[in-house]
């Protein structure tokens, strides 16, 4: 851990109880998950690097203090920069870490100056609500599952989509500013047509919500409103359906002795094979394994 968080020093308690420490990191320089498991008790001081990070206590006790402010670690929390004191007892901790510059660039495309907001006050570290805290837990579970899956995470499209979804999850769950207002008056069929044409032309590439909004000449919220109004679905649901259609074409044309369902799914950005299979069945009435064998 010291090689990654060199600014933190850890000292085990001398209370005579057994002490153990395990540390795991998965992901890449842009998006990673750090998992720490500790038996016994310890104290630590120092600061995390210049990253954007969200912490979570999976088990045990973990106290985190910035000066006079005690962070509520019973719920997910932003890990702002600055000197902090930590107390751990039988703790299993998880930290989702994003490159600061990459997060800032992505947040700006959603209309939020995330870097000026994050860590401005140590008192603003918790989620906006308990429900949004639960939503972040689901998002962090997804990040851990995909970054731990070497085959899925080797896909450029999967990595780009996961990073974008994680940025959106952080902006939605934590108090980092409000997104642009919805420009409902501009949500014309022509705007939706521009957006769908962009999606269809870039289906093999990573496509984010701001990309679609730019093509439609709307804000991120505006393009979501327009899609719901005119198509009855979100832009990302439309993108998913187009990729499911493309995956079906590939499955029909593939030799199952050479190509697997997982290969096709990852090509089109689907990291979770079980979710891909269910979404595929919902759309086409059969599982992808049946299509490739036909």
UniProtKB/TrEMBL annotation:
The keyword Transcription regulation applies. Residues 193-294 form the HTH araC/xylS-type domain. The keyword Transcription regulation applies. One of its GO terms (molecular function) is DNA-binding transcription factor activity. PROSITE patterns: HTH_ARAC_FAMILY_2. It comes from the Bacteria. Keywords: DNA-binding, Transcription, Transcription regulation. SUPFAM superfamilies: Homeodomain-like. This is AraC-like DNA-binding protein. It comes from Labedella gwakjiensis.
């Amino acid at each position: 851990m010291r090689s990654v968080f060199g600014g933190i020093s850890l000292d085990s308690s001398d209370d005579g109880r057994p002490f153990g420490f395990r540390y795991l990191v998965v992901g890449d320089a842009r998006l990673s998950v750090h998992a720490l498991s500790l038996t016994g008790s310890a104290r630590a001081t120092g600061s995390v690097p210049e990253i954007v990070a969200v912490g979570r206590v999976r088990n045990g006790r973990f106290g985190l203090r910035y000066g006079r402010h005690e962070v509520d670690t019973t719920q997910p929390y932003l890990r702002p920069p600055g000197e902090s004191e930590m107390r751990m007892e039988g703790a299993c901790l998880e930290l989702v870490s994003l490159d600061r510059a990459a997060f800032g660039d992505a947040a700006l495309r959603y209309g939020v100056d995330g870097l000026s907001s994050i860590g401005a006050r140590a008192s603003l570290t918790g989620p906006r609500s308990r429900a949004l805290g639960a939503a972040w837990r689901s998002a962090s579970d997804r990040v851990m599952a995909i970054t731990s899956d070497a085959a899925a995470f080797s896909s450029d499209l999967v990595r780009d989509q996961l990073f974008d979804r994680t940025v959106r999850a952080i902006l939605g769950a934590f108090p980092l500013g409000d997104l642009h207002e919805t420009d409902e008056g501009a949500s014309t069929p022509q705007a939706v047509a521009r957006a769908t044409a962009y999606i269809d032309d870039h289906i093999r590439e990573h496509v984010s919500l701001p990309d679609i909004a730019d093509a439609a000449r709307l804000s991120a919220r505006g393009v979501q409103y327009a899609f719901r109004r005119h198509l009855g679905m979100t832009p990302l649901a439309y993108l998913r359906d187009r990729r499911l259609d493309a995956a079906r074409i590939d499955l029909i044309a593939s030799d199952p002795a050479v190509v697997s369902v997982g290969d096709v799914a990852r090509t089109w950005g689907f990291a979770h094979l079980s979710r891909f299979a269910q979404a595929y069945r919902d759309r086409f009435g059969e599982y992808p394994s049946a299509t490739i064998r036909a």
